Predict the structure.
Amino acid sequence: MFARFVLKRVGAAVLLVFGIVVVTFALTALLPGDPAAAQLGDRASGDPAIVEAYRKAHGLDQPLWTQFVLYLVHLVQGDLGTSLQSRNPVLSDLAQFGPASFELAVTATAIAVIVGVGLGILAALRANGPLDHTLRVVSLGGVSIPIFWLSLIAVFLFSTQLRLFPSSGRLNPGETPPNHITGLYVLDSVITANWATLGSSVAHLILPALVLAAPMVGLLLRFTRSSMLEVIGNDYVRSANAKGLPAGLVVRRHILRGALVPVITVLGSAFASLLAGTVLVEQIFAWPGIGSYAYRSASNLDLPAIVGVTLFVAIVFILVNFLVDILYGLIDPRIRTS
Amino acid sequence: MSLLEIDDLTISLATTGAPRVLVDGVSLTVDSGQMVGLAGESGSGKTVTALTALGFVPDGATATGAVRLDGEDVLTMSKKRLREVRGTTVAMVFQDPMTSLHPMLSVETQLTEQLRVHRSLSRRAAKARAIEMLELVRIPNPSKALSAYPHHFSGGMRQRIAIAGALACEPKLLIADEVTTALDVTVQAGILGLLEQLRRELGMAVVFITHDLGVMNVTTDELYVMYSGRVAERGGTRQVLAAPRHPYTRALVDALPDAQNLGHPLVAIPGEAATPERRPAGCAFHPRCAFAEDRCRTEVPELLPIGAGRVLACHVDPFAPADGSATGVLLDGRIGS
Ligand SMILES: Nc1ncnc2c1ncn2[C@@H]1O[C@H](COP(=O)(O)OP(=O)(O)O)[C@@H](O)[C@H]1O
Ligand code: SF4
Ligand SMILES: [Mg+2]
């Protein structure tokens, strides 16, 4: 049963990825401006023979669908073209900047889930008390204060004034990164038992991750609270209490399980806005990740890089939603068995 | 000492205006092994009254009087003690099995968790006991049913599972609140028969709550009829149904379908049921009562004995027998079997 459910989701995800590939192809093929000219630079593109040779070499003289097949073949081989500004294959750029963003996004998400869901549970269990009112303000602040502002305030307060955390980069200038194993500095420092680097990488990670997590905390807090309150009023919770189960067990097993389903469904869209936030946060904190790379590519009209980033982000997003679906099915038997 | 003694229970909600009285001076006794019925239109306070037996009082409401379970007042019990008696001394089955079972927990979890908590049974022992319970309520293929979820079962089967869960720790008192109301008529009889059988086999006491006197007749020894948070009359179920003394009970019985008017529209009780917000002064039933006199509008009738173990709250008592016997005017045999 569950295997079939998972298989169906995998199918849907693969289809979605294919859709994204078509869209990115359309983006490159149909955009005004000659890619040959862009790739070759001014001098070479002035020479029709060179342009012709280039077009032939890259299949640009073929009909559109042949170009598409060619594009697919390249994709499958991991060939995303060469970035105009870095002069590196886009794939290796992505491999270089991806882990930094991944580390940031995963940390922010973990903070948001733990803090947001945890506070949401507390708010619901103490509904309409002083704690609940305070948390309502926190949640409102989280979702409504622009990330840009929050970053500046965080840097000013914790970095400039209190000097608790550094405000830019992944490590101090001149510090050597830990051996590349996963590309996640925190994890790699642990694996290589490099404690000094661990401290430094954690300190660098905290501020941007917190800022990035803030809107998601607000969203999850509000959602968890309302969802919990809705479930608490359910008959099945009264049944559980009527059985004389300990209060903690009723909350954990009976209330939370019902309340988490809607919370998990917003996780996917919350993650999307978090990805959007990384562009800004990486810029502000000089975090060398995909967000900064995307920003540079966009400002330089670096088409291969833009397409690469688009593909990458779309696939990450589809993957996250796939995981959310699976989680959803794990929690609610009605979804996986019907 | 009776198993359950509800003594002058009043439950009121403090509101901005006058307090809303949900239950007004109700007394009710259930002896070990006895099956007691609680009837009355929807909103008359049956559920709120019964829930106090488990120590549940609506949010924001205060309860006065006493609710003694096995001699202990649940209204003053510690939270810890309350959780101990719930499920073990007293258990409850609710109206709608579509919502009273947790949709995301397996039948096994919902049948074994109380055994694990109250009896400290091992997982295996609890599972064995759960299978026993499912056999008792006649669920086919119990070990397979354990790994299923509520949505795999029909309404009647779910109600059987809910009953199995309530009985797992062998409570002395089971409160069955409208357990047949949400079910098809054809399934109702099965559940009623099951309750009757369980009560016989397990010797437990049952409070059977329904707004439908038609199902009441089958099962209970003693019957309480409630109207607007008060007891209107009480007595042996057969006598009360065969010869109702309170005009309200009489109207309820008249509203039942019988052999003659089967398929015809029921005689509904005219007027609107009283609510805690708008409870008429005096006898709350007076706006709907054909026998109301002046003092019915001002004075609340007291519950007084009328012989043969029956009590009645009515100033007029229009159905009192002419010969002074306790039974009163007999109806035409549509009740009782
Ligand atoms: N939790 C609650 N909070 C406030 N009022 C309630 C609550 N539960 C029931 N009531 C009110 O108490 C009265 C009696 O309700 P209830 O006991 O459910 O009636 P019955 O079970 O006889 O249909 C109704 O007027 C109902 O609106
Ligand atoms: S007390 Fe009066 S109003 Fe109430 S039921 Fe009796 S006759 Fe009717
Ligand atoms: Mg009720």
Q: What stands out?
A: Chain A touches chain B through 25 residues (CB under 8 Å). Residues B 46-47, 177-178 surround magnesium ion (ligand 3) (CB under 6 Å). Residues 329 and 336 of chain A are 5 Å apart (CA to CA).
